[in-house]
Amino acid sequence: MKTVLTTLNAKYIHTCLALRCLKAYAEPDFPIDMVEFTIKDPTMNIVSDLYARKPDVIGFSCYIWNIEETIKVIEMLKKVMPQAKIVLGGPEVSYDTKDWMEKLSSVDFIIMGEGEETFKHLLEEISTTQKYHMVFGLAYRKEGEILLNAPRPKLKLDDLPSPYRFSEDLDGLAKRVTYFETSRGCPYSCQFCLSSIEVGVRYFHIERVKSDLLYLINSGAKLIKFVDRTFNIKRDYALEIFQFLIDNHKQCVFQFEITADIMRPEVLEFLNEHAPPGIFRFEIGVQSTNDTTNELVQRRQNFKKLSRTVTMVKEGGKIDQHLDLIAGLPEEDYSSFRRTFNDVFAMRPEELQLGFLKMLRGTGLRIRAKDHDYIYMDQAPYEILKNNVLSFDEIIRIKRVEDVLEKYWNDHRMDRTIEYLVTHEFESAFDFFQLFGDYWDVQGWAKIGHQLEDLFKRLYQFLEHHGTKAKASYIQSLMIVDFFENQKHKPRKTWWTFSLNKKEQTDYLTLLAEKPSIVSADFAALSLQEKELHKHTMVEVVPFEIKEDSYENRPSLLIAYFSPKEHKSYLFTVPLSLLEEAVS
Fold first, then answer.
1. Is residue 434 part of a domain?
2. Are residues 419 and 556 in the same domain?
3. Are the CB atoms for 114 and 151 separated by under 8 Å?
4. Which of 362, 387, 412 finishes a domain?
5. What is the full DSSP assignment across 324-384?
6. pLDDT tens digit sequence for 295-335
């Protein structure tokens, strides 16, 4: 019997842990052919590939991001391979399962919940007696009737074989994301999250976890994302894994989803002292700082302690942080969400993801949607359209905030400028992103692509339209510093017209070559020859001198040297008065 397991990932770099878990458990009794596609792949190409494998059984792993494309594939596949048994599994079809069986006549079986044991048992029955009533956790058809069996008891995790040891994965470890679990379940009951449905947390034995991690690291993995819903719920377990990864990382990067308000200060102090920079990333779900909202979704959160954790991590300078917000939670109106956004942005996370509530099948919020007059999409991802306190108009406006937030903060193209604007020019960070997002939409920029230079031009155009307290030249100069700071090579074109003509630029560069110590000891240490300066350096006049943590208001020459060997920029400022003294 030929069995194929497949899924449609959101991107090529992603991998599906579920397929590997099913394959590891089913083999060697049932050899599995595993193949992954993306949601961008043409349906015909996917069907053609699967058809060529001549499977008797095809299993699909289904999620909100791939279910609509998966449906197209299975319906076409059933037409050309009517004898093949089609099996669905995954979180998207584990709830409202009877509805799915009624809707999708091409599907023969759906596995509900944890799939390893159920899938293998199903294969045994397909290949022998074809009696499915004792396959716990299975939905199937019998004489035109849809039957749902009782759920399967939870597995003992240490009885499961490792899903990380397949030879066919080795070539892609350095190029793709490896998803890794040390536990299953979540201790919390957040009503918007599927993890709240499973009671309790089960752990894999820590020595097994270490062995699998070491295998992946030594085999060339470059990014491992832990899928545990709350990695740090068991402090000693988490601390031991942190220490193990510090000792064995080989520059692999590890991303964890943590609950920040339960992170103990001594754990953070340990990480700040011992973790190499850049190997750890934390994803922290804040979602809302509105206490009433958090109570309604049964989410316990101490924002003061959460802020302490985020601040300690940021001050440590070792770990990047990704903070999540959800717009559309119960009783979080536009004004309340503005406060939530500003509360979280005040911590200046490296990345702030603004998402919109998705009414996932099986969750408490979806079951009680009428309590808050929720209107949401009928198809995945079931995103909210409005509720009793948030209109569709307001959701559209918040989406504009999300758009410019991604382009101008999360991509860190102009941190100096944004920091100045949200601190000095606008009432709050949210107001800046909202007003800019509204202007962006009016201009039609959401419908076209953007080069880096375009992003600077468009921000400057918005600021001219809006009006600013500071002189335009001051903000433009901050933007110029940001532009230079984010270049790896000397730019071929700029988004502004230089205040210095060609001769003035040449004269300054010649002076810098003759007297580099005027600028600083660091600049002099670069030992740049005049020819190299002219070839790889740009200069411009700005109204401030950049100090370590501040700007001193006096006209200065901004010097940007773009190292061709290191592929990075070096920025310096020197007061024009010092340069004039050197000339005289």
1. yes
2. no
3. no
4. 387
5. EEEET-TT--HHHHHHHHHHHHTT--SEEEEEE-B--TT-HHHHTGGGGT-EE-SSTT-BE
6. 999 998 999 999 999 999 999 999 999 999 999 999 999 99
